Amino acid sequence: MTRPHILSGKPGGILLICDHASNAVPDGIDLGIAPALLEKHIAIDIGTAALTESLAAEMGTPALLATLSRLVIDLNRPTDHPGLIPLASDGHAIPGNATADRTDRIVRFHTPYHDVLEALIVETQPTLIAAIHSFTPRLEHGDGAPRPWEIGILSNTDRRAADLALPLLAAQCLVTGDNEPYSGQLLNATLDRHGEGNGIPSLSIEIRNDLIADPAGVGRWTAVLAPILREISNRLAPSDHPTQ
Predict the structure, then answer these.
(1) Name one Pfam family in it (predicted).
(2) What SS3 class is residue 141?
(3) With 0-12 CB in 10 A as exposed, 13-18 as middle and 19+ as buried, what is 166?
């Protein structure tokens, strides 16, 4: 159940990643929370699995989707991050994690996921890695101020893909955040490791989750993002590199 789900596709172009695609909790792990919390953003990036699958099908690209909840372990965090196995998220306590065996969860879930991703990158040789995430219209905890963005593009020090994406999204008249509502300089572990770490252009795409919560929304954003991702990949590809 926890082995990442791989979608095959044409190598040499775009690779899609979805770190928070699932709210599954493996057998033997008790988070100590009400089941309803597993349907919230704290457990899963709502809409991202469907969007990743739709984009992969539309573009014929390979994709990797996680198959367990970030409440078990956050695959988009380094192993020394304090939020790797969260004790609380957006005001909700996760009491079962207080006694979690950190090393065991890293060995069982975090390391295998990143090993599979590493192998997939070697196999597919992407010119662009795009991570698909979603964010809530507002947080439950704190002031809960509305988030005006429809989409955010996150990046760390490598801005090649982000700087191409932002004007293309602006041309679609979309309310777009540059390192909003989160900063890729702080929360970008998967792409820091597998994108920047390998010199591969990458970006994280954050969609407001109410916009991709149903098939119509997924279809709309597939139509928006697929040509943009193709154009970015083609612009970044070396002249002798096959493109999509």
Answers:
(1) FGase
(2) coil
(3) middle
Crossing angle for the helix pair 48-59 and 215-236, to the nearest 10 degrees: 50
pLDDT tens per residue, range 137-150? 988 776 778 999 99
For residues 159 and 188, give the distance between their C-alpha atoms in angstroms, rounded to a whole number: 13
Q: What are phi and psi of 205, to 5 degrees?
A: -105, 120
Q: Which domains does the chain have, with CATH numbers?
A: 5-236 (3.40.630.40)
Distances 215 to 5, 21, 62, 219 between C-alpha atoms, Å? 20, 16, 21, 6
Q: How far apart are CA 217 and CA 141, in angstroms?
A: 26
What are the tokens at 109?
């879930």
CA–centroid distance for 226 within its chain? 16
Assess contact for 189 and 116: CB atoms under 8 A: no
Which pTM value belongs to this model?
0.94
CB neighbourhood size of 181 (10 A): 17
DSSP for 100-136 reads --HHHHIIIIIHHHHHHHHHHHHHH--SEEEEEEEE-
Is pLDDT above 50 for 242? Answer: no
CB-based contact 201:242 (threshold 8 Å): no
What type of residue is 182?
Answer: Y
Would you put residue 40 in left (φ > 0), alpha (ψ -120 to 50) or beta?
beta
